[in-house]
Each structure stands twice: as C-alpha cells, then as structure tokens.
C-alpha cells in the first residue's frame, strides 16, 4: 500500500443526510429538479443534484435487508 491509499478497516465513515427547507419559488418543481445547486456547508463547497441516488449499492442492499426506507439523494 502506498502513502496515498488508506486502510478502511476499523474505521467509521459518516454520511450526512440533510432535509431541505421548503421555500417559495416561481420555478416549477419539475424544473427545480433539473438544476444543480452550488452551496457552501462548513467551509466545504458542495453541489445538490435532485433524484440522483448517491448511496453505494452495498449500502442500499443493507438498508433493504433491514427494511429501511429512504435513500441519500443529492
């Protein structure tokens, strides 16, 4: 293993799920979902894309096994 690789054993990686607050807009819901939104959270630049599943398939399968509903969307 070289210096740029990381070993993931015995580590916990957290995922943040954020609920967006509804706002008033003249743009239709279908149009809003086609756009990308840039924002800054805790000094980190991020992008929101609607209706794109971000969870790796392994996590989705594990959540389905425990009958969890919902997915991480961007």
From N to C, what is the helix and strand string? HEEH
SS strand fraction: 15-25%
Helical run tally = 2
The average pLDDT score comes to: 73
Q: Classify the helix fraction into a percent range.
A: 10-25%
Amino-to-carboxy terminus distance: 32 Å
User: Spatial order of the strands in the main sheet?
Assistant: 1-2
Compute the CA-based radius of gyration. 16 Å
Mind describing the biggest β-sheet?
2 strands, antiparallel
* Class derived from helix and strand content: alpha+beta
Describe this structure as you would to a colleague.
- The chain is of the alpha+beta class.
- The protein has a domain at 29-65.
- It has two helices and two strands.
- The protein is 18% helix and 16% strand.
- The chain is extended.
- It has helices at 29-32, 57-65, and strands spanning 36-41, 44-49.
- Strands 1-2 form a two-stranded antiparallel ribbon.
Layout of helices and strands, plus pairs?
Blueprint: H1 29-32, E1 36-41, E2 44-49, H2 57-65
Antiparallel strand pairs: 1-2
Key features of this structure:
single chain, alpha+beta, 2 strands, 16% strand
Can you give me a brief rundown of this structure?
This protein is an alpha+beta fold. It has helices at residues 29-32, 57-65; strands at residues 36-41, 44-49.
